[in-house]
Design goal:
Blueprint (H helix, E strand, L loop, with lengths): L1 E6 L4 H10 L5 E7 L5 H6 L3 E4 L16 E4 L9 H21 L4 E7 L12 H15 L5 E6 L1 E3 L6 E5 L7 E3 H10 L9 E7 L2 E2 H10 L1
Helix pairs in contact: 1-5, 3-4
């Protein structure tokens, strides 16, 4: 069974991923949390946790015994540029570099649609620039990776159907449930290996959409 570190475990998407992985026969989730006050929810789920802060410290200790990483941490588009840079850019780069040193097998990054063209989205430009920088750092890191550039996240019930492409023709929304499944399915090798793609809700079942995308 592979151990999967969830960076951003206390966020809405991170919690969904942990709930799913906690019932998996193949993967065991490990929640990365910023302070011990956040541990209760994971202890109640009988999920292992580890303390780590993207903004402050050396992160090598959080990767001990870890096979793969799912990064869902984010400051959010409403956060100021300084905080966004610390978490979405510098924090992401820090854990990517630590993952490379730890010889992590695969790094799954939750990014955002628009990260390829930040200047076209003035209100979110600082956020998308940070995401773009982190994405590019991951692509050049030498790690096996998948970057999922999701549309606007909603709390709607996931329908398990999506539209995926390296570049979609229009923006859209996607339930967090479906994003969680996309990120989890990206753990499988060689599915969407070393690929960056955009994702919104659609008509194709997640599994077949990912297989078709992998085939090109």
């Amino acid at each position: 069974m592979e151990k999967i570190l969830i960076v951003g475990a206390n966020g809405s998407t991170g919690k969904r991923i942990i709930e799913i992985l906690n019932n998996s026969q193949s993967f065991e989730p490990v929640a990365m949390i910023r302070n011990e006050e956040q541990k209760t929810i994971f202890e109640d789920m009988e999920v292992q946790w580890v303390l780590g802060d993207l903004e402050q410290e050396d992160l090598s200790h959080v990767l001990k015994g870890i096979d793969k990483v799912i990064f869902t941490a984010g400051s959010g588009g409403d956060t100021g540029p300084e905080k966004t840079t610390e978490v979405d850019e510098k924090g992401a780069i820090k854990i990517i570099d630590a993952s490379k040193k730890a010889k992590i097998k695969k790094f799954i990054m939750l990014s955002s649609m628009g990260a390829d063209e930040p200047s076209k989205h003035k209100k979110l430009e600082h956020y998308l620039k940070a995401k773009a920088t982190a994405d590019e750092h991951l692509r050049k890191s030498g790690l096996d990776y998948t970057i999922v550039r999701a549309g606007a996240l909603t709390d709607d019930l996931g329908m398990g159907k999506v539209k995926l492409a390296e570049k979609l023709d229009s923006a859209g929304e996607i339930p967090r449930d479906d994003v969680a499944f996309l990120l989890i399915m990206s753990l499988a090798d060689p599915l969407v290996k070393n690929m960056t793609f955009e994702a919104v809700e659609g008509d194709e079942p997640i599994k077949s959409a990912m297989i078709n995308l992998s085939k090109g």
